[in-house]
Structures are given as C-alpha cells and as structure tokens.
Amino acid sequence: MRILIVNPNTTASMTAKAAAAARAVAASGTEIIDATSSMGPVSIEGHYDGALAIPGLLFELKERQAAGYDAAVIACFDDTGLEAARSFADVPILGLCESAIATAGFLAQRFTVVTTLERSRVLIDNLVRRYGMGERAKVRASDIPVLELEDPASGAIGKLRAEIERALAEDGAEAIVLGCAGMTDLARQLHDIYGVPVIDGVAAAVKQAEALVSLGLSTSKRGSYASPLPKPFTGAMSGFSPVSRIG
C-alpha cells in the first residue's frame, strides 16, 4: 500500500523528519510518500496559522491523486484541515492528535500531551475533549516555538524534558504523548529515559492507516464527510471548486 504523509506547513526539514518516522514503523509492503505544502506558514502555531495552511494541504492531496495513494496522514498535531480533507478524499485520512490519543488510550488510564506553545495547548485541549479523552488526558505547553525543535542549540529538548517530568510528577501521567510533529524523532529516546510509553502521532497514524487499508475501510461519505456539492469558487480559491473535481 501507499501512504501519503502531508506536511501542511512549508518547512521541508519537518516533512523529512515525519517521513523518516513513518518509514521506521511502516510494514515491509508499505510505501511512504511525503509531500510539503507549497503555500502557507512555515510552522503552524494556533488557529490563524492553521486556517491559512488548509489550502496548501488540500492542494497537495489533489496533486497526488493521479499517482495514487491508499491513505494519507496530515503531519500536524493540530489535526489541521482534517475535516476538510476527509470530505475531499475517497481514502482514509488520519490526523496526528486523534491517532496519538487513541493509541495512548490503549496503553494508559491517564496520560499527558506535551506540546509547544500555550496557544497550541488550548487548541489541542479542545481536540482532546472533542475526541472523548478529556477525563483521561491533560495537555501541557513547554514554551517552545515549533521551529526551535529544528535547532539543537535552542534548548528546546531541555524544556520538553522538564515539562514531561512535571507531567509525571504532578498529573499522575502513565504515558506521554508528544504534541507536535517536530518532536517525532524523540519518542524512543524519551521512552528509554522515563520508562513509560511515549507516543508519537506520526507513527501512530501510519499504523492506524495501514490497519484501515488492510481492513478495506475508508471514510464514510454519508452525512458529514459527504463529498462537497458542485459549485463555483471564486478568486484565489477557484482551483479548489468541486466543479474542478476536488471532491
């Protein structure tokens, strides 16, 4: 099977990191294809960035339809554009947050999501509650701008570890979820340090995508994820019109 990893921000090094994490866990018969958005923010930190990242995400999904993919993973822990992508696509679309907390729920009664900035913490806390895990999970911010995760000299890893240690000491956390795609390469190292499950959303989403494809299941097109109704879109959005077969 072919799984597309789409980074909805425009930083190619983050795409490469997510793709490497995906390939590390993919089954032998799974091909990982990666794509970086060609338009939008260099990192996604909060609602404004997320909203402006969605057109680029949908464009990448559309552009790669001809080559074909069996499922796609949106490589942002905010689950940026997930609902729109599921309405657009005829294959399973997985988000990092939803996949990671579902996986954590199999492994621990209580867990903590450790993310980057406070604005992201609020957004992710809302997602966790929406996904039904609000009573079992806490979300913490480690005060790390996303792009600092790309800089070994930034001190970001120390801030992340300090927040994980507070989560274990104060939250009763039995597992840790890494709340940013930029943290994906740290999961194994942090597991070895703290001795608890550390869940990376990219790895979790890839394995869940493989399972859905193997089961022959895809997103329901009845109701909320039905394909968009044909209508013209105007201005800069004209290429996204369902008339142009984006749905």
Key terms for this structure?
alpha/beta; 15% strand; Hydantoin_racemase-like; 40% helix; four-stranded parallel sheet; 247 residues; 8 helices; Asp/Glu/hydantoin_racemase; Iso_Racemase_Enz_sf; Aspartate/glutamate racemase family protein
Folded structure, characterized:
40% of the residues lie in helices and 15% in strands. The strands form 2 sheets. A 4-stranded parallel sheet has the order 2-1-3-4, sandwiched between helices. It has a 4-stranded parallel sheet with strand order 6-5-7-8, with helices on both faces. It is globular, with a radius of gyration of 17 Å. It has 247 residues and is an alpha/beta fold. The chain contains 8 helices and 8 strands. Helix 1 packs across helix 8 (201-214) and helix 4 packs across helix 8 (201-214). It has helices at 12-25, 47-63, 82-88, 96-107, 118-130, 156-170, 187-194, 201-214; strands at 2-7, 31-36, 71-74, 93-95, 111-115, 137-141, 175-178, 198-200. Helix 1 (12-25) links the parallel strand 1 and strand 2 (31-36). The model has no long low-confidence stretch (mean pLDDT 95). Pfam families: Asp_Glu_race.
Topology overview:
Elements: E1 2-7, H1 12-25, E2 31-36, H2 47-63, E3 71-74, H3 82-88, E4 93-95, H4 96-107, E5 111-115, H5 118-130, E6 137-141, H6 156-170, E7 175-178, H7 187-194, E8 198-200, H8 201-214
Parallel strand pairs: 1-2, 1-3, 3-4, 5-6, 5-7, 7-8
Helix pairs in contact: 1-8, 4-8
Helix content: 40-55%
Radius of gyration: 17 Å
Q: Quick one: how many beta strands?
A: 8
Strand order of the largest sheet: 2-1-3-4
Strand content: 5-15%
> Which regions are unreliable across 5 or more consecutive residues at pLDDT < 50?
none
Organism: Rhizobium bangladeshense
Family: Belongs to the HyuE racemase family.
Protein name: Aspartate/glutamate racemase family protein
